[in-house]
Amino acid sequence: MQQREATPLPSPFPTATALDKLLTGGLPQGQLVELIGLRSSGRFSTILSSLASATSAGEAAALVDLGDAFDPQLAVTAGVDLERLLWVRPEHLKQTLISAEVLLAGGFPLVVVDLGNPPVPGGRGLEASWLRLAKAAQNHQAVPFVSSPYRVSGTAAAGVVKADRGRALWSGAAPGPRLLVGLSSHLTLQKMRRQQGNRTEVLRLKPPDALIYGTSATSTGGGARP
Question: Which of 28, 134, 210, 215 could form a disulfide with 156 if both were Cys (CB 3.0 to 4.6 A apart)?
Answer without folding.
Answer: 134
